[in-house]
Amino acid sequence: MHWLNWVIIVTYLVYVVWDGLRRAKGTTELEGYFLANRNLPWWAVGLSVMATQLSAVTMIGTTGQGATDGMRFVQFYFGLPVAMVILGVTLVPFLHRAKVYTAYEFLEKRFDAKTRSLTSFLFLISRGMSCGAIISAPAIVFSAIFGWPISWSVALIGVPTVIYTMLGGVQAVTWADVKQMFLIVGALGAIVIVLLLRLPVPADDALTLAGAVGRMKTFDFTFTLNETYTFWSGIIGGTFLMLSYFGTDQSQVQRYLTAKSVDEARSSLLMSAYWKIPLQALILLIGILVFVFYLFQPQPALFNPAHARVVQEREPVLWADVNQRFQTATGIRAGAAKELAANRTPLTTEAFRAADAQVNKVRTEALEMAARVTGESSRDVNYIIPHFVLNELPLGLAGIFIAAVMAAAMSSIAAELNSLSTATVIDFYRRWVRPEATDAHFLGVSKAATGVWGIFACVVATYAASLGSLIEVVNRFGSFFYGSILGVFLLAMIPGARAIGAFGGLIAGMTAVGVVSFTAPAVSFLWHNVIGAVTVVLVGVVLSGGRLRQVQGS
Questions:
Q1: How do residues 323-347 score in pLDDT, each as one tens digit?
Q2: Under DSSP, is residue 188 helix (H, G, I), strand (E, B) or coil?
Q3: Which range marks the domain in which residue 517 is found?
């Protein structure tokens, strides 16, 4: 990579770290470290909320998702506006006025200590694993650039970020997120312009080509539990997921607890409700335009360069045959694409679809060969955008994009680690180990907890890169836990619910999700949120009813 790109990357990262530490200087109190003294403006909190989601996973995983699957993924976010409105009138004002550090403190006041601890523990596990997936995204970029093992790349990203998070606080994280949002949006906009300028066909023809093979299909009104991205899974399962994520996940709750008032906390969430879906659609559209770009430009049969090298070394003859057939198929597809762009008829459309199907068939052979030879998952959706950035973007813009990926990763990881440290110290250490201690002592423990969770996330990151689309991996991790956690908070709003119902319902919810996950793997992970929440509420109400009758009869 050209030295100018490296100058851009290093300059931006040094500035982000310096500015973050400058803003955190002098933070000696626990509330200042975890909640910025509850004094951040709503627009900064709102951008931080969005930035926590728009991580490197989004820039790499979602764009790759758009290139391989099209616009369908945007349905995943259809429940977001609904969830934000519900939270704005329920949990947000209550938690903000309660002056708590974590959302789980409320559960002890409403139920008991063991319900609080179990719920917080489930959050720690789910968010720790998701943090690992977030670290994987930039690690993939470095692996693609230098050919390093993923573990080395993970350490390159994770270690500096852990150190920065240990020294800074939530205020440093929030203001880093603000800068991150501007850089990300600018980088994405620049890539769209480059793609439109370099495509040999007009934009409307490009969208026609993408639509001919299903990439532009946005709405799927089929009601099925086996399909992940449909209108109904987005509205129903997505609403449950977003309610749990923004209402009960400490990484998000902690963002709006830093706002100056309830109204400003609401405004910060509504910013995501208004802008998240259009921004997500833009990111998916970039992936689609990359797909169209490679209709006319040579593309590798395997986007993962490490797998391509291993297959070429171990199976040179077979790989040469597959690669030759792939290049032939892509050449035929390029001709069919030009014919369709010039003359849109059913005949040219069908010819293009047949040519694209042949390309996919040969590429599937290459992926299966890579899986057999390497013994690893060969899904390379996370390598599509890095390959495009490093090989096709003009000088300087590649550096800006990688800087955006790095900054997005560092900010998101810092936010996640900060919330993990908060829950660990407040819900466990201060609650069970040292109820009475100075803020200086708790700050020291918080920094140590940040380091421990950073190591855990780095270990997870070394495995997450091979699990497929990183954006799916993050949400799959979360969906296993989120529904049950949401169910406990829903029970808290039912006047007759009791501690025995909350604790028993939470165990039942996690059990139900686990059973469905392992016995019915075809059921989409989005529906796990509904299953977990409904099970917790139903079992909780039944157990609470039995407890009420027992009390009334005594």
A1: 999 999 999 999 999 999 999 999 9
A2: helix
A3: 3-294+390-553
